[in-house]
Amino acid sequence: MTIHDLRTRHGDASDGSADQVGGRLSRVDGPAKITGAAKYAVEQQLEGLAHAVLVESTVPAGKVRAIDTAAAEGAPGVLLVLTPDTIPPLKTASDWFGTPPPDVPYCPLARDIAFSGQHVAAVVAESFEQAVAAAALVKVSYDEAPAVADLSDPKAGDGIAIDMMTKEWGEAEAAFAAAPVRICAAYNTPREYQAPMEPHGLIAAWQGDRLTVWEPSQWLDGMARTYAEWFAIPFENVRLVSPYIGGGFGSKALALSHGAVAASAAKMLGRPVRLVMSRPQTFTGYGGRAATRQTVTLGADRDGKIQSIVHRGVNETSMGGMWVEPLGSVTSVMYATPNFSSKQNVVRVNSVVPGAMRAPGENPSAFGIESAIDELAYEVGIDPLEIRLRNYAEQDPHARKAWSTRQLREAFVAGAEAFGWARRSPAPRSMRDGNQLIGWGVAAGTYPVRRAYGEALVRILADGTVEVESSSIDMGQGTYTILAQTAAETLGVPADNVVVKLGDSRFARAGVTGGSRLAGIMTGAVHKAAGAALDHLVGLAISDPRSPFHALQANTLVVAGGRVSSPRGDGPEVSIAELLASVGADQIEAKGDTMPANSTAEDRYKAYTTIATPLTHTDGDYSRHSWCAHFIEVRVDEDFGTVRVSRVVSALDSGRLYNPKLAESQWKGGIIMGIGQALLEEGIVDRRHGRIVNNNLADYLVPTNADIPDIQTISVGIPDPHSSALGGKGVGELAIVGVAPAIANAVFHATGKRVRDLPITLEKLI
Ligand code: MCN
Ligand code: MOS
User: Fold this and answer.
1) Fewer CB within 10 Å of terminal CB in the chain, N or C?
2) Does 358 contact ligand 2 (Cβ within 6 A)?
3) In terms of domains, do 540 and 643 share one?
4) Which pLDDT score is estimated for 571?
């Protein structure tokens, strides 16, 4: 069964525009997922499939002294035991900027241990169960060395200054010292994990020197490049396949060492190999969000006008790798201030290198500044909403450029109105319902409009249906659906007649799905490709002597509802299929991309396989961002200190929405993740062994339905021509930004207790 077979008309009945960009078409991949027909990467059934299981370091630092594989090798069904000594060395691959790598070998299994959970060996067996059993028999001994457990370890120190993160204007320290009102506080966020439902894993299969990898991926072309470089084979020889993804949230953009292990094993055995991480391994096999510390100082007038912001941030990184979580990203754009200074350090600890998790940087950054401005509001006795409006940045205070569009004031107004903010009683602990203290908090969020390039192929088939192909992906955001709508609108066919194929690196290329940029890029590319296909179709209809329109001598035709007619309705009307049959064409195909016209093959390769795009969100005359304002009610049980979020109203500016139903769903997903971050999520480090204690979904708490109230989202965006071809701005990450501070601010309003350390658990309210 294909997605197309399963599809029914399912746009909102009230909305006739589901075939158009902006219509509320339901997810076209929904039925396949609901019925189980959707095959995820590692569900491929391949002849001769063998199963690999990883063995991980149990110490956080030191060296592997010896690995005894004898028992594992003799265990039933075992085909291969890989250790640093037996796995063939690979080549070091370039980083995601495409920086040429040093010519040194790369070994995906470690001898030198930098964190607990590092892969040290792997067992491959006929069955998964045999591999699990044999992996338990691998005996690894270590020369353990002292480790730095986390940011609060006394050995951690101040870390390394990341100068490129410094942002300064005016005289921030002096202005702070001179300010009549001064706020200074430290805000912490813990390690957090993406926790996608589908764990990381892959199937690798070789045919000669060609490698096929079925792997959930946010970036087929980037991962294909890495595999090609590791194994020193041409880029074209690697095929990545990732039709569906059970969530990524930033964690599935890169080829990781477990992928190198599986592909090496497949090569050695001459058989396809499947390797899927266990849930605990997903806590150390790649990084979650880095733990962060920020100090925010605000100097202000008595009327709440900010005079100075001094911001210092620290995030953890690993011993060998580098992750910078840009903590000044929201701090530097949210409010107007004449004096500003933001600096950042990173501290090396014995953990896996942290990674991208929904709004890396903006998310913790907003927790700092949006908590601090709330503290200032109470200090000067001004309503927390009013103080934000008083410090409204009319232009980008850092880039000193006009906003492309900034509907944040509209978001504050619309959100406050829908929430009933005017009825808020200002004093902490002044609103209650029985023994529940009620708190109302507000916070803003933002995410830059990241732009890059994409390419799409549109094919009009003989039966009048349309195919769209792109190596971009859908991990739940709605790419399949919005690209069907874009092609349908551009070509004048029902969306039901469009089949979108994604997630195969053989298709037209796309860059990374990260930074909430894919929708803007790919709607632009599909619009272009479909426009070219339409021109081709109309051109044939007008010029081919066999066409029913030939005699009309028209210079254009109308295509609507899958039927072709003349603009004045004075000629024939035929279906696309009839037209193609009349001119003897079995299909029409056109490619479209968003690259500059004079781009070389090298430019294109770089655009799709690295993140080194020349476009920034502050190019040219404008600064481009999405914006949001969250209004949140919490209820805190006075006896137990338990916090429940009871109401959320968020007003958001993502520009024009390609599909409001899906955008709302994305926003709600982000808000739900923000609720988890505020109240539940924290990777707890066992200081003795450097391990994550709660490395499973029973102990690492993410929100369930019972934790989530009704969430109201309001779109206040207007089309932004500077941000994308069709006027949209980013949606995917925006809404998580600002939720945690809105909740912390609401908790303060409810209880009078300021929690500056996430998550807000009951013991912190005592
Ligand atoms: N959209 C819209 N109008 C716009 C922009 C987007 O209607 N102007 C809708 C579309 O349905 C589009 C979706 O929002 O498919 C997301 O678009 P966009 O903001 O461009 O984000 P990306 O497609 O680049 O998706 C990546 C983004 C990121 S970076 C993370 S992290 C994240 C997120 O999306 N991870 C997700 N949302 C996720 N949603 C799910 N279900 N699972 C994840 O792992
Ligand atoms: Mo999203 S964290 O940029 O994949």
Assistant:
1) C
2) yes
3) no
4) 87
* 682 has catalytic annotation: no
Same domain, 464 and 565: yes
pLDDT digits (tens, 9 = 90+) for 268-324: 999 999 999 999 999 999 999 999 999 999 999 999 999 999 999 999 999 999 999
Q: In what order do the strands lie in the sheet with 498-501?
A: 498-501, 466-469, 455-461, 587-593
296, 421: one domain: yes
Same domain for 70 and 205? Answer: yes
The answer to whether residues 720 and 696 belong to one domain is: yes
* Residue 135 domain flag: yes
Residues 301 and 243 in one domain: no
- Same domain? For 573 and 665 the reply is no
Tokens of 220: 């087929």
Pocket of ligand 1 (CB under 6 A): 247-250, 358, 475-479, 482, 513-520, 654-659, 662-663, 666, 669, 728-733
Closest atom, ligand 1, to C-alpha of 521: 20
> What does the pLDDT look like over 321-357, one tens digit per residue?
999 999 999 999 999 999 999 999 999 999 999 999 9
When pLDDT is averaged across residues 495-511 and rounded to a whole number, the result is: 97
Q: How many other C-beta atoms lie within 10 A of the C-beta of residue 38?
A: 18
Tokens 């490709």 — which residue? 529
The pLDDT assigned to 680 comes to: 98
Whose atoms come closest to the Cα of 250: which ligand? 2
Instruction: Judge contact between 345 and 313, C-beta under 8 A.
Output: yes
Q: Can you give the residue range of the structural domain that contains 220?
A: 43-146+201-276
The CB of 518 under 6 Å from ligand 2? The reply is no
What mean pLDDT is predicted for residues 561-589? 95
User: How many structural domains comprise the chain?
Assistant: 3
Owner of token pair 């009945």: 13
Q: Which amino acid would we find at residue 691?
A: R
CATH number at residue 356: 3.30.365.10
Residues with Cβ < 8 Å from 627, sequence gap 6 or more? Answer: 406, 407, 408, 411, 444, 445, 446, 652, 653, 734
Tell me the per-residue pLDDT of 674-724, one tens digit each, with 9 for 90 and over.
999 999 999 999 999 999 999 999 999 999 999 999 999 999 999 999 999
Of the residues 470, 479, 722, 731, which should be mutated to test ligand 1's pocket, given the most ligand atoms within 8 Å of the CB? 731
Domain-ending residue, one of 276, 310, 337: 276
